[in-house]
Structure formats: C-alpha cells, structure tokens
UniProtKB/TrEMBL annotation:
Amino acid composition bias (Polar residues), ranges on this chain: 35-47, 55-67
Name this protein carries in UniProt: RNA-binding protein 34
Positions of region (Disordered): 1-22, 35-111
Span of domain RRM: 116-205, 218-293
PROSITE patterns given in the database record: RRM
Main location class: nucleus
Record PANTHER family: EUKARYOTIC TRANSLATION INITIATION FACTOR 4B/4H, RNA-BINDING PROTEIN 34
Basic and acidic residues biased stretches: 89-109
SMART domains, per the entry: RRM
A cellular component term, taken from the record's GO annotations: nucleolus
Keywords: Nucleus, RNA-binding
GO biological process: maturation of LSU-rRNA from tricistronic rRNA transcript (SSU-rRNA, 5.8S rRNA, LSU-rRNA)
GO molecular function terms noted in the UniProt entry: rRNA binding
Amino acid sequence: KMDYAIGSLSDLITGSVTPNKPKVVKKQITVSESKLQITTPQSNSSEDSLKRNSVKTTDQINSVSTEKTPKKRKLLDTNENGSKPKKSKNSENAERRITQKVKNEKREEDPELLSRTVFVGNLPVTLNTKKFKKLFAKYGNIEAVRIRGVPIADPKTSKKVALIKKEFHPERKSFHGYVRFEKREDAVKATEMNSTIYQDHHLRVCLCDVDDKPDESKAIFIGNLNAEEDDLWKLFESCGSVASVRIIRDGKTGIGKGFGYVNFHNSDAVSLALEMENVQLKGRELRISICNLGAAKKNKKNNKVKKIVKPGKPK
C-alpha cells in the first residue's frame, strides 16, 4: 500500500509540474499481480470525479486490448451422439432423382448404347411408353424407350408431370422419343419406319450414332412458320416425294421458333417448291428458299433450277 496526491501521478508520467494543484487527497492503492484496484473516499467535487473515471492502470488497458471476441459456433451436421441427422423424405427423393438423372445422362452418351438406339420424331402426343414400345417391338427386343420434347402448357409444370397428366400445349400435337434395342442390327432395321404414317403423323426415324445430314441440295428452307410437321408434309408432297420435315423448336417449351426445313428425295422437287408463290399456311405467308446456294448454281447450269434465292430470304 502507498499514499499519493491527486495530480502527482500525471506529473510523474508527463514529467511536468502542474501549478495550482487541487487540495491534496490521500488515497490508498492496493496492488495485486493481476490488476490494480483503487479505493477512493467519497468526494463532493465534480472535478475529482472526472479525474477518477479517467484514470486506468496499464494492466487494465492491456487486458481490454488482448480480450478476444467469442467466435461464432459452427453448425454441426451431426447429432449429440455423433450420428448424422435423418433427412426428410422430400430431401431423400430429390437427391435420388438427381443421382438417377446424372446416371441416365451418362448412359445416353455411351457410344455403345447410342449404336443401338434410334431417334423417332413427330410422335403423336396421344402416345404413351407402352404403345411406343409396342410400335417398334416387331424389329427386335427393346431395352428401353424414352419420350422427350413434351410440349408443356404451363412453364411452371415439369415435362414429366405434363406427360402423366396429358397437359400439353394446345398448338402442339407431337413430341419425339428414343428406342434402345438389345442389338444394333435391330436398330438398323427399325429405320425402315422413317416416313411411315402413324396416327396421321409422318414419323422421322434415324440412328443416333450416325451423323447422317440430309442433302442440302434436296432441301428447302421455310420461314415465317407457325405450323406442325404434318402441315408441311401435306403442303409440299405435291412437289415430290418428301424424305423428312424438321421444325426448329425451343428446347424448354417445345414451341417452334418460326422456321424449319423440308427434305426431298430428289432435287426436281426442290425446283417445283421454289416456284410456289404466295403460299399461305395458317394465316401466314411462307418464305421459301433453297438451303444450299452453291448446289443451286451448279444445278442451274443443267437447267434444273429456274430461280435461285438466297437462303432464308424471301423471293
């Protein structure tokens, strides 16, 4: 313990002498190892009170500066007994669907599986997987069938739900699918179904592993389009034998983007199609042009094409 006067401590620290010191008040300081405690007798002087509150010991300042804020507790993914908490049924079903979807995508990209899979386009929306499998069962044993490109009526509804409930877009009458056979030779035989009519729909059937692009010299481009594949079949079959019809569609909604292609078996049908003028289909005037301008110029020398139109441009 020791005695000191108010003002002496500040003079000691700053090395100066404070004139007109206030009345000397004796205080007792108890010094411990951890902190310094000050006991002060009661005083009515406001100046003395301010000075007392302003005095801090070195140990107190150090203890405040070194004090650390408590860390936030991390959320643990385990229970008190160390076991993982049980997941809800919805979470388990969602994880199972995602896992199965990833597996299916990997299987679909397998070259061996693609070699015995056929693509089938322009299927009627009234078709289900059972009827779809039965349609191609005559060509061999089938491992799986898949329906894709479902034209949904409500964007908030999934394609799977729309297929189950048969809630399709009112302007769409078709979707596409895939058939995977046990043997490749059976898949090759199934391509015989190409251009055949099933429930008033002209089917488009081809192997998935063959990049068989149609001959552009035998194809025409159709713009300003708002119709289905079978509408184009009926419109252009008077020009010649139609090999296939393809309408470019949006991947999510399945709605056409306003253009498509008609492929013929010979180039003579192309020349006849290009001669058609003011062709109306469902209230729209179609823009008809040739797909391959180079082939058209070559055929013009042989008097096969009377008029050459740039691709995608109106006549």
